[in-house]
Design a protein that fits this description.
The N and C termini lie far apart (about 60 Å). This protein is about 30% helix and about 15% strand. A hairpin with a 2-residue loop joins strand 6 and strand 7. It folds into 3 domains: about 5-100 and about 155-185, NADH:ubiquinone oxidoreductase-like, 20kDa subunit (Rossmann fold); about 110-145, no CATH class; about 200-320, no CATH class. By secondary structure, the chain is an alpha/beta fold. The strands form 3 sheets. It has a 5-stranded parallel β-sheet with strand order 2-1-3-5-9, sandwiched between helices.
Length: about 325
């Protein structure tokens, strides 16, 4: 019997939502199992690292690698899966652009750990212990892998063949990609697949007029009109700067797009694209005859209604942005 191609799904620094998205293929998982040998997925299967190390190089046909690179172990596994895989796919927003883990790049590691384990109202830690290094137990020693100085996305460490965006990717897009692989209809290396080339606004059926915004509002402050563009209602919807293909489920649920599919085709920096878009719709009133100082005050008043620049504009793409994912200060 001809051996089926091997499929692996690896989980680095991420929440596990990408694995759930794979499970959400539902009955199509049976089709995947019929076509491929699903042989490595740490959260679902008991395959060990040594089993992967013992494989010949390139023995795995496809590895869907999800998660950012936060620890030295993540780096080690990225190189191992690259070596053992014919195709290595950055699967989901964390692997593609750093996502939520990469927002830690605005803070040095010691400050981050202090905030988590000591300066934290929900933690009872009177001794001020910050976990690190080796801890001895009767059953054996436990070694915590060190944190990297900054969070990376996958392609900053190893060669990546394809990118699948989403936090997590939509199951129908995952299936489209798997069908493409099985049919041998592979796009050019380095392509972003399982998505569209336009923006979420192109998939959103809300009514759009000429946008002029005097201030932004938070989601909890009002209930948006169900058929009107959310950005025009003063919600920071990232759809104008986000690649389509998800089907716009957030805006259909009366929630603004947060940008998880990353920048549209041809856009190098999602946050910069969004800032440019906001600059064109900002309404600070009639400025004729006003001094530069007064105009600046109006602009600043408008900007104060945006609560978190980095968390809004670079929630999913900081590590891959023009900012470079540098450690703060």
């Amino acid at each position: 019997m001809k051996q089926k191609p091997k499929l692996a799904v690896y989980w680095a620094a991420s929440c596990g939502g990408c694995e759930i998205a794979v499970v959400n293929l539902h009955e199509k998982l049976l089709d995947v199992d019929a076509a491929m040998d699903f042989m490595f997925c740490p959260c679902l299967m008991d395959t060990k690292k040594k089993d992967i190390e013992s494989l010949p190089d390139r023995a795995i046909a496809i590895t869907l690698f999800n998660g950012a690179l936060r620890t030295e172990e993540n780096i080690e596994m990225a190189h191992l899966m690259r070596k053992k895989s014919q195709l290595l796919v950055a699967f989901g927003s964390c692997a593609k652009g750093g996502c939520i883990p990469a927002l830690a790049n605005f803070t040095k590691n010691n400050e981050l750990l202090h905030s988590i384990y000591i300066d934290n109202h929900s933690v009872d830690n009177p001794a001020g212990i910050i976990p690190s290094g080796t801890t001895a137990f009767p059953e054996g020693d436990m070694q915590l892998t060190p944190l990297l100085e900054r969070v990376k996305h996958l392609a900053q460490e190893v060669e990546v063949d394809y990118y699948i965006p989403g936090c997590p990717p939509e199951p129908h897009q995952i299936w489209n990609v798997i069908e493409t692989f099985l049919a041998g209809e592979l796009p050019s290396k380095g392509s972003t697949i399982g998505c569209g080339t336009l923006t979420v606004c192109d998939d959103c059926d809300r009514t759009k007029e000429e946008k002029r915004i005097t201030a932004f509002r938070r989601n909890y402050e009002f209930y948006p009109e169900p058929e009107v563009c959310l950005l025009e209602q003063g919600l920071l919807c990232m759809g104008i700067a986000t690649r389509n293909g998800c089907g716009a489920p957030c805006t259909k649920a009366n929630m603004p797009c947060t940008g998880c599919y990353g920048a549209p085709e041809g856009v190098g920096d999602q946050g910069a694209k969004m800032v440019a878009a906001l600059g064109s719709v900002m309404d600070i009133g009639d400025t004729a005859g006003l001094s530069e100082e007064v105009i600046s005050e109006r602009v600043n008043a408008f900007l104060t209604t945006i609560p978190d620049y980095s968390g809004l504009f670079y929630k999913y793409t900081l590590a891959s942005s023009i900012l470079g994912g540098r450690v703060g200060r």
